[in-house]
Amino acid sequence: MSDSTPPRPLAAEWPALLPWLAPVAVGIAGLTSSSAGLRLTAGAALLIGAAIAAWMQIAGRARRDRELADLANDLRRGTAPPLPLLDPSEPEPDLRAAVRAVFERKNQLDAALFELTEDRDRLFAALEGMSEGVLAVDRDERLLLVNRAAAALLRLPRGDLKGRPVWEVVRRSAVTDACETVLSGEGRYDAEFEVEHATLALRADPLPGVAALKGAAGVVLQIRDVTELRRLESVRRDFVSNVSHELKTPIAAISALAETLLDGPLEGPPIARRFLADIEGHADRLHDLVVDVIRLARVESGRDVFDVRRLPVGPVVEDVLRGLRAAATKAEVRLSAVPPPQPAYVRADADALATVLDNLLTNALRHTPPGGRVTVDWNSDAGSEVGEDGPTVKLRVIDTGEGIPAEHLGRVFQRFHRVDPARSREKGGTGLGLAIVKQMLAVFDGSVAVESVVGEGATFTVTLPSA
Amino acid sequence: MSLSLSRDMEETHRDILTMCALTEELVGAAVDGLGGAAHDLASELKAADKRVDWYDVQVEERCLRVLALHAPVAEDLRRVVSVLRIAKELERVADLGVHIAERADHAAAAVRAAREAGESNPVGLGDLPALKRVRQAARVALDMLRRSIDAYVDLDPAKARKVCVDDDIVDGLNRETLNEVTDLMRENPAAVEAAVGLFSVSRHIERIADHATNIAKDAIYLVEGQIVRHSKRFPDRRAGETAEERFGPVDVDVPHPKPDLVGVS
C-alpha cells in the first residue's frame, strides 16, 4: 500500500495485505533465481503488477473522493442516503463506522428537533389561548412574541409584528415606559392605563437570561383587562356605603328616642307610648333591611339554593294577595287578581316567586294613593306564537299610582335607587325590593320590565319560562 | 445610509412615536375630564405636556444634527423634514389637550362657585346635551391622529388620504355644536358660561383634527415627495358623508338628567 494512506490499526491492515503477499514473494524468488530469463520475466511481471496496483489505487481514490463528496452533500442537505452508504466490500470499516455514527447522531437530532418543535407549538398554543395578553421584547425593544389577547387588548394592527420595535407597534406610553424601565435594570414594573375605556393592568418583568448582569436580556409584559374588576370594586364600595347609610338612619333614630325616654321625666304614658311605637317602627325597618340584604346575598349565590320546579301561578298569587289584604285595606287600595282562562305553569322556586310578587305588590301599594287599584294578571303564550326562548308566562302588576318619571325608568331596578328618597323611606321601603326582583328572575331565566305614565300608574311585567 | 445617520433616524422615529402616544393619552384624558367632577386635571396633564415638549426639542436637535453632519438627500431628507413638521404638530396637539383640560377645570370651578354662592342649579359642562357631540368629535379626531401616525409608520399614502377626508366630519360636528350652543344661549342665559366653554373645547378638537390632517399630509409627502397641503384634490373623497354614516349614531338612548335642556337644539 502507498505511504499516503493514513495510519490505521494493524488488525484492519492484515487482511488487506494478504492478497499482495504471494505475488511479492514469488517475484522476489524469481528475481533472486540464477536463470537470467526467469529474472527478466519476474522483473517484467513485477513492473506490470506494480503498474496495475498503482492504477487500481488511483481509481479507488477517485471513487472514494466521489463518494465522500456525495456524503458531504447529503450531510449538508440533511437528506439521509440509505445505510450502508459505502460498498459492503469497503476496505475501510472505520470509515463506515464513522458514517454510520454520523447518521445515527443525525437521527437523534431530528427526533430531538421534532420534539422541541412540538413542545414549542404546544407552548405557543397555550400562550395564544391565554386570556392575559403577553408580550415579549428583546434587549433592543423589538417584539419577540405577541399573543392574540395582547393584540386584542392593545388594539394592535394585524400582520406579523415580530421583530418590529415595540414603541412603533404598541404606542402606549405605559408600555414604552415599562420596557425602558425594566431594560435599564430596575426590576418589576407595574402600571395601569386606559385603552378606549378599558382599564388595563400591566406588569413587566425582566426576561431572565445570560445578559442579566447588565440590565435585562429583554422584557415580558403581561396585560390584564381589569375594567370589570374596577367596576365591581366601585359597585361593592357603593353598596357597602349605601347599606351602612341605610342602617345608620334607623339606629340613630332609635338611640335618640331611647335617650329621650331615659332622660325622662316622661310627660305621661301617652307620649312614652308614642316614642316606643316609633322605636318599634324603626326596628321593623332595620329588620326589613337586614332581611332584604340576606335575600339579595342568597339570590347572588346562584341557582343551587332554589328548588326550581313546575309551579302553578294561580295559588302563589292567591297566597301573596291573602298576605297583603290587610295592608291594602289600610292603604285603601283595591287589590285584585285576574286569572287567565287556562291555568299557567312556570319553572321557578315557589318561595322566590312569592318574594318577587310580594315585592312588586308592596311596591305598588306603597306608591298608589287611597282609592287606587292594584291588579295582577297573568297568561301563558304557550299555544300562540312562541318567542325565541320557548313559551313564556307573562305576569303583570298594574297600579294606578303616581307613576315613575321617564329618567328613572332605567334605574328603578338598581340597588338603593329611589325616585323620591325621603317619601320611600317614610313608607318603609328598603330600596332593595326591586333589585331583588330583578336578580331572582335572572336566576330563573326570567326578566322584568317596567313601563309607566307619570300620574297614571306603572305596569311591571314579569316574564318567566313556561312549564 | 451611514450607520450613525441610521441610528439618529431610528432614535428620532422612536421619539416621534413616544410623543404621539403621550399626546393621544393626554387629549383622551382631557376629553374624559369634560363635565366630570372638578379635580385639578390641567396641572396633572401639564406634566405630560412637559414631556411632549422635551421630546419636541429632542427631535428638533437630532434632526438639525442630521442635516448638519450628513447633509441627507432624497428620501432621507424628506424624512428629516417630515419628522420636524410632525413633531411640531404633535406639540401643538398636546397644548390643545391642556387647553381642553383647563376649560373642564374652569367650568367645574365655576359650577362649584355658583353653588357656594347659593345658586341651586348652576349649569355645568356635563349638563349640556351638546357635550355628547363634542365627545364624538373628540373620538373622531383622536382616531384621525392615530391613523395619521399609522400612515407615517407604515408609509401608506392611501391611509393618510383617508385621514384627510375625515377632517370634514369633525368640521361638520363643530358646526353643529356651534348651532346648538348658540340656540341654547339664546334660550337659557344661565347656560352662557358653560356653552361658551364647550364651544371653545369643540374648536380645540376641530384644531386637533386639522393637525392630524397635516400629519397625514406630511406622511404623503414623505412617501410620494409631493406637497399636498393646500391642494383640494383627494380622489377618494366621499362627499357629504356624515359622522353618523361613518361611525354610527350618537348614543341617544341615555336619558338626560335635565330634560328642559334637551329640547333646545
Automatic annotation (TrEMBL), chain A:
PANTHER family: SENSOR HISTIDINE KINASE GLRK, TWO-COMPONENT HISTIDINE KINASE. It holds the Pfam family HATPase_c. It is found in: Membrane. The gene is sasA_3. Keywords: ATP-binding, Kinase, Membrane, Nucleotide-binding, Phosphoprotein, Transferase, Transmembrane, Transmembrane helix, Two-component regulatory system. Its EC number is 2.7.13.3. Coiled coil: none annotated. GO terms for molecular function: transferase activity. This is histidine kinase. NCBIfam families: sensory_box.
UniProtKB/TrEMBL annotation, chain B:
Residues 234-265 are annotated as: Disordered. Residues 234-259 have a biased composition (Basic and acidic residues). Gene3D superfamilies: Phosphate transport system protein phou homolog 2, domain 2 (1.20.58.220). Residues 16-103, 135-218 form the PhoU domain. SUPFAM superfamilies: PhoU-like. NCBIfam families: phoU_full. PANTHER family: PHOSPHATE-SPECIFIC TRANSPORT SYSTEM ACCESSORY PROTEIN PHOU (PTHR42930:SF3). Belongs to the PhoU family. This is Phosphate-specific transport system accessory protein PhoU. The lineage of its organism: Bacteria, Pseudomonadati, Planctomycetota, Planctomycetia, Planctomycetales.
